[in-house]
Amino acid sequence: MQNVQLHIGALLLVVAANAIAGCDPEPEPGITPDATEISDATAPEPDAGDSQPARLMGTWQRIDDAGVVQDQFIFDSDGFQYDAFEDDPQHLAGSYTTTDHQLVMDGVTSGQPGSTRVEASYYATDSSLGIGAFFPQGTHNGAVGSWHGHHITRTLDASGDETMAIGATGDLTLSDDQTAHFEITPADGSPLQTYDGTWTAQGADIYETAFEQADITINFTFHLDEDAALSQVVYSRAQAAHRQSRRVSSRPWWAARS
């Protein structure tokens, strides 16, 4: 049986930007992809009372095991920037809004027509940012319960009309008998994907699910953040990025295909 590890990867912003232009833009000058050299002057002081919008402010990075920054977000009062550094450098910048753990980013890439809109559930702690995070639907006991999240990237032409949508909405159920059920609704209108499998605790607030589909086993690793959200794609605040242990690879859950 083939085993496929589906964990965190570069955000589908990269795919969307390529789809708009069909070419690779130059990376934004002046940004050094080194986790030990990037400071984060805009980050708020840790405060248990911080609201989610306040916690979102700052620089967030995803780094590999060698400490190299793969991609990063910067959120401040003027808007956001997204940069992917490895393999296929990309830069996207624009405005964003947040409402009840929902993040909407509208951005453009220099020299490219049209724009990109990203709609995603999110959860930010003082040190980590979960993109496409899952939130409990009703009561839950730790990870046990029903969870809902989404991450959708839309490409728009110069007139503002949608030309493509990628990503998905997800509904995850983890039962106390350690069985798991996952339904993924693709944003492009393709059929609903349904997975049944199991889940296990891998450590403090870390859970791994295993779903069998035909001859493939699909694994996702989730982190339970502050007993409030399950996050798979996790970024670390820049000044603490090299100390974080949440370094995994490959595709995010919303890019899964059976």
Q: Topology, please?
A:
Blueprint: E1 2-5, H1 13-21, H2 52-56, E2 58-63, E3 69-76, E4 79-84, E5 90-99, E6 102-108, E7 115-124, E8 128-131, E9 135-136, E10 145-156, E11 162-174, E12 179-186, E13 193-203, E14 206-213, E15 216-225, E16 229-231, E17 233-237
Parallel strand pairs: 1-15
Antiparallel strand pairs: 2-3, 2-17, 3-4, 4-5, 5-6, 6-7, 7-8, 7-10, 8-17, 9-10, 10-11, 11-12, 12-13, 13-14, 14-15, 15-16
In short:
The chain is 5% helix and 49% strand. With 258 residues, the chain is mainly beta. The protein has an eight-stranded antiparallel beta barrel with strand order 2-3-4-5-6-7-8-17.
Number-wise, the strands total 17
Mean pLDDT: 78
The backbone outline, from C-alpha atoms, is: globular
State the order of secondary-structure elements, H for helix, E for strand: EHHEEEEEEEEEEEEEEEE
Radius of gyration: 18 Å
The description of the largest β-sheet is:
8 strands, antiparallel, barrel
Share of β-strand residues: over 45%
Structural class: mainly beta
For the largest sheet, list the strands in their spatial order.
2-3-4-5-6-7-8-17
Number of helical stretches of at least 4 residues: 2
- What portion of residues is helical? under 10%
Show unreliable segments.
Answer: 1-50, 241-250
Distance separating the two termini: 14 Å
